[in-house]
Amino acid sequence: MKIFLLVAVVNLSIFQSYSQNIKAENVPLVVRSALQQKYPAVRHVTWEKEKGNFEANWGGRSGEDTSVQFDPSGNFIEFSKSIPANKLPAATLAYIKNHFKGVKVSEATKITNASGKISYEAEVNRKDLLFDSEGKFLRTEN
Fold it and tell me: Model-level pTM?
């Protein structure tokens, strides 16, 4: 029984290290203020804590079509917007077709970081594949 409990606690802590839903009141005021300044029209925001940063999500049916990340000091990190899979760069689609034959992209996202650099993320087989602005494969996360 003790081993089972230990395994459950370890699995939960691993999951929480990646992303954890949190209440708005648990997000630092400086982060909430940064969101309000940068995106004043945004409403119905949900928050996650991911790798020490704070992610605000809103929009779409899932409530997560758009998201932004801030560090704990309120500094903007990146803006992410869901896109249709067919809007990914051609090189990205070719990579997925060659490496994941017959598998469809379940989610696609265009990411713009604080310096304006664009990248793409495609979820395939429950893995996030990251690509540069040209569609060149960078790495897998998860």
Answer: 0.82
